[in-house]
Amino acid sequence: MTELEKLQKHIVRCRLCPRLVQWREKIAIEKTRRFEHWQYWGKPNPSFGDPEAQLLLVGLAPAAHGGNRTGRMFTGDRSGDWLYRALHKFGFANQSTSVSRHDGLRLQNCYITATCRCAPPQNRLLPAEIVNCRPFLIKEMEILNSVRVIVGLGKIGFDSAVSALRHLGAWTVSSKLHFTHGAEYPITNKLTLLASFHPSQQNTFTGRLTEPMFDAIFRRARKLLLTSDSLRT
């Protein structure tokens, strides 16, 4: 078993945040009518993807009836519909949809993680819960040493990536990195941080995030990786 696999097993057993444990397990029992025949996952979501990935995505947290049901981040909800469509379009996934963790989805040169691994009530995390989960993200970023582009999905995902990078000593400048959609920050000569609005229904239904806007993030990520590859050859 690899170090990354051991970490994911540890994540799935985590019970550090009582509020999140109570909520995720309550939802898994009560369910919702349209998924009443599902056996909900009801545990922390492990991260997943290509362990040699050059692209790392940092999201917020599983949705109550999305990842908390399916056991895989961005799977079985509207945010995932947007994300996997974009990843497939730019060659980072073998299919454009994901409905369960057994549906054959494979990420290619991409790895997906999150600020927090448990579904929070009203999709709102407490600061202490973010802090509790941060060591998992830091450890993943230590292990995933092929990463060349990080995309922070939403301000919380972006800020979590920045905090982890600072902890790892990859970003030492004291000036604040501002979150705006499409913002691009060179962290080192080998690593770039991109910011994107989260593909939540709140953003996509209101038009704050459009499909061309979201595609532009992954088009830029692909270009940065191709440039990085050409510089190494």
Walkthrough of the structure:
This protein is of the alpha/beta class and 233 residues long. The protein has one domain (3-232): Uracil-DNA Glycosylase, subunit E (3-Layer(aba) Sandwich). Helix content is 41%, strand content 12%. It is built from 8 helices and 6 strands. The chain has helices at residues 3-12, 18-30, 67-70, 78-89, 127-143, 154-167, 201-204, 211-232, and strands spanning 48-49, 55-59, 110-114, 149-153, 184-188, 191-196. A 6-stranded mixed beta sheet has the order 1-3-2-4-6-5. A hairpin with a 2-residue loop joins strand 5 and strand 6. Helix 4 (78-89) packs across helix 8 (211-232) and helix 5 (127-143) packs across helix 6 (154-167). The longest helix is centred in the last third of the chain and has 22 residues, at 211-232. The radius of gyration is 17 Å and the shape is globular. The two termini are 32 Å apart.
